Amino acid sequence: MKNTLSILMIVTPALLAQVPKLPADIDPQSYSRLPLIKRSSLDEHGKKIFDFVNLGKVEETPRIGPPANTLYSIDMAEPFDHLNQVLRKTVAGPRFFEICTLIAAREFDQQYEWTAHEMAARRAGVEQPVIDSVKFNRSLDDLSEKERVLIQYGRNLLRKHKIESAEFAKMVDLFGRQGTIELTATIGDYAMTALVLNAVDQQLPPERQPGLLPVK
């Protein structure tokens, strides 16, 4: 009840009036270029995957965002979602998982992804100065060693497409071999998700705070 009341308090008529008009090719329910797939339109195999991707909730329409779009390729949607769930349990811990999601969202200017994960990063204990370093592409000099090394590593992967030997060795020293691979995969996972969301021009629903990610 408390969460419901919070949402009702956030989505006020005044807020709705400020929501930009959706582009002509955006579906008003999915907030993307693809309408929501209905569970009843799928065969039994598709329904099983639909329910898995929808976090076990047997509903007629999926969660908006990545799940609603990846379900257009049923056999891809399941491993796509499963990988995301596995990476959330990285040995590096939730703070560094969330930092990786922000790195990818920033590099691809993905507003939907960012608005979800800035909030999640705060809940995971990522301090606002760390978030802002990624958000505004700031110097990393004032951050702790782990945060500084990880963010620079992510930037180099997505900008230079190359990691020097010393940099990789430092990642392994700080996060271990397993942690390094899992954090690398997390950056890649959220880069892939950002590409999907950018392709379908995923818009923010009214309850999402707009403008959290400024244009570079």
Q: Please give the number of β-strands.
A: 0
Shape: globular
CATH topology description of the largest domain? AhpD-like
Unreliable residue runs? 1-9
Query: Can you tell me the CATH architecture of the largest domain?
Result: Up-down Bundle
**Distance linking N and C termini:** 39 Å
- Strand pairing plus helix content: what structural class? mainly alpha
In CATH terms, the superfamily of the largest domain is AhpD-like
Overall radius of gyration? 18 Å
In terms of topology, how is this protein built?
Elements: H1 2-10, H2 13-18, H3 44-53, H4 66-70, H5 74-87, H6 94-107, H7 111-123, H8 128-135, H9 145-159, H10 165-199
